Amino acid sequence: MANHVFVQNNAAMRAVPVEERENFWHKLVKFYETGQQDDLNDFLYKTSIGIMQGGLTMEKTREIEERNRKWLGLE
Prior knowledge:
This protein is mainly alpha-helical. The protein has one domain (3-71). It contains four helices and two strands. The longest helix is centred in the middle third of the chain and has 14 residues, at 21-34.
């Protein structure tokens, strides 16, 4: 799945946590060998995908936070 698909659906792909990387590789190999993606999808949703608040991209969220800091005189 491409990151743009996640962004279009208000989700953001994050890095797989270090402690889950071996598990990730096993699930990824299984996906490539069988074509079945349910196990990999479940794993990614539990460990590596987050919902963006308000449906905003991280870049837009940072822009808003920066504008708010300036407005509040924090910069």
